[in-house]
Amino acid sequence: MTIQNVAVVGAGVMGRGIAYASALAGFHTTLVDVSEKQRRDAYSFAEHTTQKGIKKEKITESQAKDLLANLTTSSDLESTVNKADLLIEAVPEKRELKKKILETADQHAPEHTLFASNTSTISPTELGSYTNRASQVVVMHFFNPVHRMPLVEIVKGLETSEQTVDLIKFSSEKMGKETVEVNEFPGFVTSRISALVGNEAFHMLQEGVATAEDIDKAVRLGLNYPMGPLELGDLVGLDARLNNLKYLHETLGEKYRPAPLLEQLVQAGRLGKKSGRGIYKYNA
Ligand SMILES: NC(=O)c1ccc[n+]([C@@H]2O[C@H](COP(=O)([O-])OP(=O)(O)OC[C@H]3O[C@@H](n4cnc5c(N)ncnc54)[C@H](O)[C@@H]3O)[C@@H](O)[C@H]2O)c1
């Protein structure tokens, strides 16, 4: 089996980045979203990102032209999955919504179509159970911003076949990504590590170990992280960080209990960059 047609469902932060990487890889890519504005913004994002890519000599003019020719948008999930070899779901992290998308896609996609989800937390075994093709369902966890972040975590469910994993690995590599294979555990590899490091930084700030600036600087320069844990928290959103920790606390235990300071900042509406203030202040 070969992958030619890719359907990406959800044209938000992640879906538009995934569709960009997929179209650049040469896959005929259709980005499906219920919102017309999101579809338009996602196509503009591709146009803008190709222009920036040309200026920085990351892609050629001809690659940019091919990318835009490979990318279309649609509001119609059924007719799009009907032609897809691979579906990548990137709708919001709501179980019922993902279930509905997968059930509908399962009814309308050809038998061979693979289903991948970009979920941050939901089990691939559970996602597979919403379909009659559990062996072809997998988590394909991209990172934000997708066009710059080089990793895809491939998370296998109980029934996911080796053939599915191989094809997802091949597709990810064609999109210019490195892959790691992960067995099904809450938080995969990256969310688990990142949640713990981030939470520890909040505890340190609360205990008065150092200022926020110095905690971030110490981790950047002393541990060689590209960003400090507190500035990263502001970038991802403190609410998203808190939800992730709550989920890991529920599933993996006490060491993931969210730091009280993090809960307090979220209660105060200080959600990070997107709300203008988190640990740090941002201009509008
Ligand atoms: N944002 C991140 O940094 C990040 C990183 C890794 C994984 N994820 C995961 O990726 C997924 C998407 O996250 P996001 O941040 O891109 O969300 P987002 O809110 O930016 O985008 C979701 C998109 O889905 C669309 N949508 C909603 N219902 C739909 C439907 N029925 N059919 C088609 N489209 C529909 C929305 O209009 C929106 O454009 C989530 O599962 C999230 O946990 C997010």
From TrEMBL:
Q: Which Pfam families match?
A: 3HCDH, 3HCDH_N
UniProt xrefs under InterPro entries: 3-OHacyl-CoA_DH, 3-OHacyl-CoA_DH_NAD-bd, 3HC_DH_C, 6-PGluconate_DH-like_C_sf, 6PGD_dom2, NAD(P)-bd_dom_sf
User: Does this UniProt record's set of keywords contain Oxidoreductase?
Assistant: yes
Keyword annotations from UniProtKB, A to Z? Oxidoreductase
Query: According to the lineage, what is the superkingdom?
Result: Bacteria
Which Gene3D superfamilies is this protein grouped with?
Answer: N-(1-d-carboxylethyl)-l-norvaline Dehydrogenase, domain 2, NAD(P)-binding Rossmann-like Domain
- Domain 3-hydroxyacyl-CoA dehydrogenase NAD binding intervals: 5-184
Please state every residue range assigned to the domain named 3-hydroxyacyl-CoA dehydrogenase C-terminal: 187-282
Pathway membership: Lipid metabolism; butanoate metabolism
Asked whether the UniProt record includes Repeat among its keywords, one would answer: no
Identify the SUPFAM superfamilies for this entry: 6-phosphogluconate dehydrogenase C-terminal domain-like (SSF48179), NAD(P)-binding Rossmann-fold domains (SSF51735)
Q: Which family does it belong to?
A: Belongs to the 3-hydroxyacyl-CoA dehydrogenase family.
The protein's matches in PANTHER family, at most eight in alphabetical order, are given as: 3-HYDROXYACYL-COA DEHYDROGENASE FAMILY PROTEIN, 3-HYDROXYBUTYRYL-COA DEHYDROGENASE
Protein's name according to its UniProt entry = 3-hydroxyacyl-CoA dehydrogenase
In which organism is this protein found? Halobacillus naozhouensis
